[in-house]
Design brief:
Distance between the termini: 44 Å
Oligomer: single chain
Strand order of the largest sheet: 1-2-3
Largest sheet: 3 strands, antiparallel
Helix content: 10-25%
């Protein structure tokens, strides 16, 4: 889902704002699903950085510094991930227009398309 607005500042310059919302069909964008892993298994298989990134509650002011046990639920796999984005666009039209709108009239007379290929 998404939407946006575009405004013509002049014949050659346009500004636009776009907002989009995307639903994913998995729960792994943020790596929070099911249960916490065993930190020793994670350390052996993926290294210390994986252990550090797997639990970041110790970075919060009131967070627990201890890594949660393997049996503690980490997230709800039935709630799939979503993300959103925004964009601000500035568009410039290049080339000589010879006045307002005349360049489009010239282009519309030309025939563009796929070239004919003899069989």
């Amino acid at each position: 889902m998404g939407g946006g607005l575009k405004y013509a500042i002049s014949d050659r310059i346009r500004i636009g704002l776009e907002i989009g919302l995307r639903k994913l069909f998995n729960d792994y964008l943020d790596d929070v699903s099911k249960f916490y892993p065993d930190p020793n298994d994670l350390l052996a298989g993926r290294g210390q950085l994986s252990v550090d990134m797997s639990y970041r509650g110790d970075e919060l002011p009131d967070g627990d510094p201890a890594f949660p046990p393997k049996s503690i639920q980490r997230g709800n796999e039935k709630l799939k991930d979503w993300y959103y984005f925004t964009g601000l666009h500035l568009t410039f039209r290049l080339g000589n227009t010879n006045g307002v709108g005349t360049h489009m009239a010239k282009w519309s007379k030309k025939k563009y398309g796929c070239p004919a290929v003899p069989l």
